[in-house]
């Protein structure tokens, strides 16, 4: 999964097509728990969505702006509009993440 490089990139990515942002941090045990399954999730939905990882510590102001106070969390956008969010501090399973993505359609 590609890492977000700037707030400008975030604004551009969310404005075009379908993008899912995963908010994470290196120190987050629950984020590391889902790391092994994220490539298969990305591959499963690659024809529909682009995926980007947002480092919570690097983009704390963006997280505050988006009300992302727990990680790992996911926010989906379609053509500039938020199409869904799976935001909480709870550990997430592959099934829960896929269910969230399936519910976006």
From TrEMBL:
<dbReference type="InterPro" id="IPR036249">
    <property type="entry name" value="Thioredoxin-like_sf"/>
</dbReference>
<feature type="domain" description="Thioredoxin">
    <location>
        <begin position="1"/>
        <end position="105"/>
    </location>
</feature>
<dbReference type="Pfam" id="PF00085">
    <property type="entry name" value="Thioredoxin"/>
</dbReference>
<protein>
    <submittedName>
        <fullName>Thioredoxin family protein</fullName>
    </submittedName>
</protein>
<dbReference type="InterPro" id="IPR050620">
    <property type="entry name" value="Thioredoxin_H-type-like"/>
</dbReference>
<dbReference type="InterPro" id="IPR013766">
    <property type="entry name" value="Thioredoxin_domain"/>
</dbReference>
